[in-house]
Amino acid sequence: MPIIEVERLAKTFRSRERSAGLRGSLRSFVAPRYREREAVKPISFSLEPGELLAFIGPNGAGKSTTIKMLTGILYPTSGKARVLGLVPWQQRRRLSFRIASVYGQKSQLWYHLPPQDTFDLLARIYELDMREYRKRRDFLVEVFDIGEHMRTPARKLSLGERMRCELAAALLHKPSIIFLDEPTIGLDVIAKQRIRDLLGHLHAEEGVTVFLTSHDAGDIEQVCRRAIVINHGDIILDAPVAKLKRDYLKVKTVDLLLEEPAQALLKIDSQTGRRRLSVQLPTSIHEELLDTEGVQVLKAKDRGLKLAIDTSRTPLEPVIAAIMQHSHILDMTISDPPMEEIIATIYRQAGREEVQLEQQN
Amino acid sequence: MSLIKNCIRTLRFIGAYLVANLQAAMEYRAAFIAQVITMIANDSLWLFFWWTYFRQFPLVHGWQSTNIVVIWAVAACGFGIGMAVFGNTPRLAALIMNGGLDAYLGMPRNVLLHVCITASDPSAWGDIMFAIGAFLLILRPDPLHFALFLLLALQAALIFAAFLVIFGSLAFFLGNTEGLAQQMLGALTTFSTYPMNIFTGVVRLLLFTVVPAGFVSFVPLQLLQRFSWPLLAGMTGFTLLFAAIAAGIFQLGLKRYESGNLLGMQN
Amino acid sequence: MDTSITRRGAIYHARRTLSLSLQKYGAVVRVSIANNLAYVMEVFFRALLLVVLVFILSQLWRTTFSARGTKILSGFSISAMVWYLVAAETIAMSLPALTRRIDQEVRSGQLAYLLGRPSSYVFYNFAQYLGERLVRLTINLVVGSILALIVVGLPHFTWMGILAWPLVTLLALCIDFVAYFGIGLLAFWTEETSSFALIFSRLTLVLGGVLAPLEIFPQPLRSIAQALPFSTILYGPSRTLVHFEPDRFVPLLWQQLITLAVGSLILLAVYRVAIRRVNINGG
Predict the structure, then answer these.
(1) β-strand A251-258 against A329-335: which pairing, if any?
(2) How near does any CA of chain C get to the CA of B142, in Å?
(3) Nearest by CB to A37, which of B23, B24, B266?
(4) How much is the average pLDDT of A112-131?
(5) Per CATH, the architecture of A4-248 is what?
(6) Residue B48's closest chain C neighbor by CA?
(7) For residue A48, what is the DSSP state?
(8) Which residues of chain B have a CB within 8 Å of the CB of C70?
(9) Exposed / middle / buried, residue C91 (Cβ in 10 Å: 0-12, 13-18, 19+)
């Protein structure tokens, strides 16, 4: 029995067109023209209890609109949806007892008060039985390891500590589904990892369904099992994260600051006219030009070198080791491709698949 | 008796927020105390001025110099309770404009009530202390009259809150009405602190309807001087009606908000 | 060395510096006025409150006057009372948020940056304050005057009163500036300064006679209030306009100048201590 069922859910915003100038204002007052914006085209999907879903897409893709409809804040233009068997925009209050929302950029904790006080307040808001609440609170404090922060005013906590308290606060009333919006934004690597581990732990212990929105590929890779990619109000991919990883997340961007000018490591490929990394891999005797699709030079300026390395074809370490032979590496950053690029790749892939299909026919 | 249980739940809900707000204010103890003392001093100065004035120039026959004290006490107490309990009402328009209502929509409580009680104005406690102090010290009432005073102040508080809700909710339809709401509150407060005798005709009508200063201080003054059940019923009736109107306007606007088609609200 | 040429050069230089400074501050005042005109809505709403007050108080006095059956109360006719109120509220309601701005600049550490500017920090602020205040004053004056005309008709001002009014008003604005600026500097030592500003403004309103001339007060309160510096801000200028009495004019000027001088000395002392604090603590 799916916990979330979405059937051809759509949302079109209608706003009055505002023209500039006095005549324009008068005109728009007397004979208003409406501008329609299709934020969410009819989309359909369903979620089983206990699933870990990544809901991703670029800004303006319709993510927040969809979530608002699922949590009952916005009502749709057409289509149906059921969350925990309830219609969100009609039975919002009943639903809110059983779901939770956490926003990475907005805090539920009172700024000047210690989390302890916010927790007590939430207990009252959700009408929890006091004894049950205390047990639940102590359990969450232990799991999230926030015991020493409970009595510190929230404004004095670091972002990572605050995020853990936020999560704990959201889970006080034992929600069945938790909607997370950018929960690891602004956190350092270690704090991010902690949050991801906690989410995994929680899912294992309580089977809570997770609906995660994030621009961080690491969040998606480590926490979620399934991914829905939405763009321009349309679902363009609904697949297991493993597939996403396999097809789109294998390229790592490596940003290097070398001691020597980067040009020394590059050679112009006479065939394509492009610059290519030219180093001696430990596995070969000669220098060799590295495969373009394996290692792509994105940028080379002075001592800065930016590479895109396809880790499914060329592992990172040998390449970096080879570079180190030629020059000291002063600084290095390894990052996942940004969401926009993943989307673009998905489109390209989808386009290519379409062309292939056409060719087959 | 689910109505009684509901009332208790609601009161506990309001109480929880009152406590949280006080705790937050206490975090800056010095500033809190300074604000309270300032407000008490502020109110006292004004009252002193008007008391002097009315001692010199009694308004009409039978005007007691303590009348102005009663008017001020009820108005100040009502305002204080309104701003202490429903301290977030002045920010309603801003919340509507910047999408802040979303957070409340996701919560399992009545949205309007929840929005109103989220914040509290610390200086309002000064108004309350001043009002009770002035009433007790200058009028020396018996316990029954004091209880009546508190009841009337509570109703005045509801009127203040409902008034702000109405003007804040206009933001659903007209855009940013924050400035308007503030000024209208100033008008209501000002009119409430003057004796009704000086107003006539259309103005009086306005002061019992759109800007209900008459119900904030004048009717309570009558009730405290010469109590009558019908008058109390009338006052309570108006208070409840006014609050209902405010809630109704808010609900209408909320429907618009939920459609996402508010002025310039889409992301 | 030809001393006459150097002296002339020196005078020329001094005059140029003065004119440059004036130009500079003039530009600041102009910018401030332009900025404030953008806040028309807010000022309009503020004027609404003025309308309410004038209306209420004129009603009050009408009732009082008729209850007493007189035309003159404490030496003021009802027309004079209303025009007094308009004059006093014109000044009282034109107060910009000076203390809050100074408080913020202190707390944000912007003070350190502004101290580096060539123009002295105080004068820069004064120019800004004056610009804001004058705009609000003018709007209040226009709105208030229209209202007063409707309610009680033409005023009975004397020429001397009209000529004297700008001078004493300007002095009043300076006194206000000194006071609120000083309170703002307290941000170096206290958590919040708005309470002090509020108390000061209330004292000014009540003891400075905003709603009614100080003649309302019985003795000995009347004399005390008239002696206090608050009366120089509202009561002094308004009474000068409405009820000019030559033998009160010069004492008022003296009172204002002394208040201004004392206030400025206190302000400069506080300012110096504050600067030292910035230098030691680095903001």
Answers:
(1) antiparallel
(2) 31
(3) B266
(4) 92
(5) 3-Layer(aba) Sandwich (3.40)
(6) C206
(7) -
(8) none
(9) buried
Whether the CB of B144 is below 8 Å from some CB of chain C: the reply is no
All structural domains of chain C with their residue ranges: 11-281
Chain A residues within an 8 Å CB radius of B266: 13, 15, 37, 39
Average pLDDT over residues A344-348: 72
Residue ranges covered by each domain of chain B: 2-259
- Summarised one tens digit per residue, pLDDT across range C46-94 is 778 888 888 888 888 888 888 777 777 777 888 888 888 888 988 988 8
Interface of B with A in 5-64 (CB under 8 A): 9, 12-13, 16-17, 20, 23-24, 27-28
Q: What is the pLDDT of residues B40-98, one digit of tens each?
A: 998 998 898 888 888 877 776 667 778 899 999 999 999 999 999 999 999 999 999 88
Residue with tokens 């905003």: C210
Block residue for tokens 């995020």: A163
Please give the distance of CA B20 from its chain centroid, rounded to a whole number. 20
- Chains touching C (3+ CB pairs < 8 Å): B
More confident site: C87 or C120: C87
Mean predicted confidence (pLDDT) in A220-241: 88
Q: Where are the domains of chain A?
A: 4-248, 251-335
Class of domain A251-335: alpha beta
Cβ distance of B42 and C198 shorter than 8 Å = yes
Cβ distance C206 to B46 less than 8 Å, yes or no, reads yes
Q: Catalogue the E-assigned strands of A214-293.
A: 226-231, 234-240, 251-258, 266-268, 275-279, 288-289
pLDDT at C20: 75
Residue of C nearest to B186 (CA): C49
Enumerate the residues of chain B whose CB falls inside 8 A of the CB of residue C52.
186-187, 190-191
Specify the amino acid at residue A227.
A
